[in-house]
């Protein structure tokens, strides 16, 4: 069985989720159960699905959970775009989060491709 703690992308995902939580603390209170909640859930889904995928026996199942994690990262990108348009985040905050999530996406894509080739 794989140990999810050994995957750099899982570690990056956990750190990323913490950054998203810190950022969303500053959102307007009216967004607590809307955009804020969506961003938090999507960001937590990234490392959570990596961890769940590690419990699966087959490479295909593992890759499937990594793809779900990748989809969650795309959700975060979309939600951050909305947060920027609503001026809940500054351009600098937006760019920092996007850079961080795109780095995770590249690592996930690389890992998925490696698994799918075996």
Q: What does this 3D model show about the protein?
A:
With 118 residues, the protein is mostly helical. It is 77% helix and 0% strand. The protein contains four helices and no strands. Helix 3 runs antiparallel to helix 4. The two termini are 17 Å apart. The mean pLDDT is 96.
In CATH, the topology is named de novo design (two linked rop proteins)
Give the DSSP E fraction (strand runs of 2 or more residues): under 5%
Based on DSSP secondary structure assignment, what is the total number of beta strands? 0
Low-confidence stretches at least 5 residues in length (pLDDT < 50)? none
User: What radius of gyration results from the CA coordinates?
Assistant: 15 Å
State the end-to-end distance.
17 Å
Task: Give a quick set of tags describing it.
de novo design (two linked rop proteins); mainly alpha; elongated
Question: How is the secondary structure organized here?
Answer:
Blueprint: H1 8-24, H2 35-54, H3 59-85, H4 91-117
Compose a concise summary of this entry.
Helix content is 77%, strand content 0%. It has 118 residues and is mainly alpha-helical.
